[in-house]
Amino acid sequence: MSKKVRLGMIGAGNIGRAHAEACQECTGLQVTAVCDVDAQRAKALAREYDIPHVFTGYKDLLAADVVDAVSVCTPNNTHMPITLAAIASDKDVLCEKPIAMNAQQARRMVAAAEKAGRILMTAQSARYTPAARFIKKLADRGKFGDIYYGKALWLRRAGIPKGWFQDAKQSAGGPLIDLGVHAVDLMWWLMGRPKPVAAFGVTFDHLGRSGQGMGDWGVGWNPGKFTVEDMVGALIRFEDGRALSLDISWAAHTADVYWMRIFGTKGGAQFMPDTTVYHTDGKTKLDVVPQLERWNQYAAENQHFVDCVRRREEPASPGSQSVTVMEMLDAVAKAARTGRMALIRTG
Ligand SMILES: NC(=O)c1ccc[n+]([C@@H]2O[C@H](COP(=O)([O-])OP(=O)(O)OC[C@H]3O[C@@H](n4cnc5c(N)ncnc54)[C@H](O)[C@@H]3O)[C@@H](O)[C@H]2O)c1
User: Fold this and answer.
1) pTM recorded for the entire structure
2) What is the CATH number of the domain that holds 257?
């Protein structure tokens, strides 16, 4: 494809705005349309980034022949219907995380894209950070040996996001699906995508339901309508005995904590917040703090999507991999609901 890819933004909220801003740094694309059910929001984004076409209905955008591809930046429950409609209109799709409400929906989206020969990439933005790219490169070179365990501690003290995030019908869950999808995707990818077989999990909603944990994120918060968890603990086991564990909250009586680590037979790494690589030489412990390049993860993600669209190549975070991620998240949620270990049957 020699011409620029004409990209349509569907959803002009927080992440839609971040994508529009990031696209200014990208080459080979032009944002030609924006759509939001909130007309004011769509118009404001169009004004700010000089986007020629504005819509309030995504079907109108898809019918207008003004885009080649779309970026789906709407609430989780709309990802599947919008993606299926876009694929049916011969558009390639960059879909925000989580790809869908559950694995079943994700499978439908992937099958539709494969059948139509369309690219479906999940916006797992954490994979496009300088730290993740660097650690992945080391992992692929075998610098950590076998990565047998991954651990994410991502605790917000008072960070319940507002609006639809708190409504299970629109979001499918709280921090497990909102933040856990990043943590699980990233660690599983760094481990080389082993086959998950079982999960155990616990979820809590004490603070969210009782009016605590609002913080700066909670404008417009209605605890009476809080139907998701505010904290999750989970252990996911893979076929070969490896595992990863999560402790993630939107709200908890704790200091804010944010780190992820991987543990391998030859070395380990912390890749958030301060990237550090851990090795041992004889009795000498080596802690290496790399001077990472800096870039905007959303710009890297959008550039990669557009490059894949132009070259008709599979992206580095294809929708098909998100099916397995959703299977893991579904299993954690099921285990939390039933109080029993949930078996995972992938595929
Ligand atoms: N990758 C990341 O780092 C990251 C960060 C934030 C959000 N997200 C994801 O992006 C998605 C959106 O989150 P957000 O924080 O931007 O939410 P938001 O509420 O700020 O924005 C969502 C926008 O979608 C619009 N909308 C809702 N239904 C629509 C429809 N049918 N058609 C067109 N527009 C519609 C809303 O009016 C709103 O403007 C979620 O899936 C979220 O998980 C990803």
Assistant:
1) 0.97
2) 3.30.360.10
